[in-house]
């Protein structure tokens, strides 16, 4: 008896632990009072209205979206180029090159951000959303490269050869054969990069100044303590990340399994 | 196609990514290393090959203390997270029916995709003096006074464990489902008890997965600034918090750079210690 009940009890307890903070975050974003703590009064949408009427927050939200989409596009383009170049052409020292491309994965975001901050200040460049975007490409490029490189198999190579034998030049082969065949991996890498950039704090904090991204804006709101406004904006941030993850899960991996 | 033009095209495709990594990762890293050997004379930076910053790390108690605190928290988090995640991954892999496994796994790690800042704030809601846990326990009459849960090491560790249980459940699950059921059957047929099967067959086979997850946990945990800053308050400082103090209030970039190099050194040591189990190439 115990042997059958225990696993389910453990599973339930684990799920309760995993969903406790997110549950509290979302539930009290609908709080009608001014403190996001029990007892729950509501539901009310006043804090969402408050958040969406706040120019600073909406600006930060748009900054975050821009940086996330822009940096993810650059990271995927660079990652695809590197994966194609290394998988389809014989380059000397390709193991070293792969290691170099993967290296940023093993370093804390804080250290990546600190290094860039020091260089940006030395060069005399100003801090902006651009510098934060550069940092986000640095952390996402290794992931994009690894995902796309891992999915470049013999199957695509045969199709590429066939296209080449039929007279297609390399640009056509890449655009009409390689990219369509790798679309699931490319899109997965893109959406993963969007999510990671969207959620990222420390690099954005170190490398922006006047225009900031949403996590940085939330961080500065945190100083005034618990507030249902923070719950509302936090729930929205979570919602966007979940949407991106569900897109990856249900469109890309479903298709691959068929 | 001649070998020369094949190489030239390959470089053409790979060059942008390589140059980006060189310019925005390798160069900053080298400059940071050089910065850690510079000193501050008042507010002006003096480049050179000084070991002053590293000497300061050894001589100033609060800096050495931060390294110790970081290591303590990281090791606690890594061990607790593995112990909690392994049974969950096991249940999903072996007790949940096959067709529901992917959904169960997706649900188990969905909150993983919350921003660091938002996730830490959410734990603050749960652990605050008037927060969910205290109100519930007061309501049930389990305690008569609210407990101090937030702004403690307990809160930092809880926030971290929450995050890494999800990460480790994913890596351990991936390892468990790769095992052929024949290993378990063979062990059982040869008379091993369930525990013996686990201890002598399953555990050794999943060790690489556990170690890979443990290493990821170690790297991400020891380098994180947000969780200890929001949940731990300022009762004790970790290395990333001390780095941020140097950058902010004191603008002491050389010392911050030296601390970052030490942090990298610790991660490298952890990597070397665990290297024989790690399969990072298979990530």
TrEMBL record, chain A:
Pfam families: BPD_transp_1. Gene3D superfamilies: MetI-like (1.10.3720.10). Residues 61-248 form the ABC transmembrane type-1 domain. The keyword Cell membrane applies. It is a multi-pass membrane protein. One of its GO terms (biological process) is transmembrane transport. It is found in: Cell membrane. The chain crosses the membrane at residues 7-30, 57-87, 99-121, 127-152, 173-198, 232-253. It comes from the Bacteria. InterPro entries: Bact_Polyamine_Transport, MetI-like, MetI-like_sf. This is Spermidine/putrescine transport system permease protein. The lineage of its organism: Bacteria, Pseudomonadati, Pseudomonadota, Alphaproteobacteria, Rhodobacterales.
UniProtKB/TrEMBL annotation, chain B:
Keywords: Cell membrane, Membrane, Transmembrane, Transmembrane helix, Transport. The keyword Transport applies. Residues 67-274 form the ABC transmembrane type-1 domain. CDD domains: TM_PBP2. Its main location: membrane. One of its GO terms (biological process) is transmembrane transport. The keyword Transport applies. It is a multi-pass membrane protein. The chain crosses the membrane at residues 12-38, 66-91, 103-124, 160-180, 201-226, 253-274. GO terms for cellular component: plasma membrane. It is found in: Cell membrane. It holds the Pfam family BPD_transp_1. PANTHER family: ABC TRANSPORTER PERMEASE PROTEIN (PTHR42929:SF5), INNER MEMBRANE ABC TRANSPORTER PERMEASE PROTEIN YDCU-RELATED-RELATED (PTHR42929). Belongs to the binding-protein-dependent transport system permease family. CysTW subfamily. This is Spermidine/putrescine transport system permease protein. It comes from Palleronia pelagia.
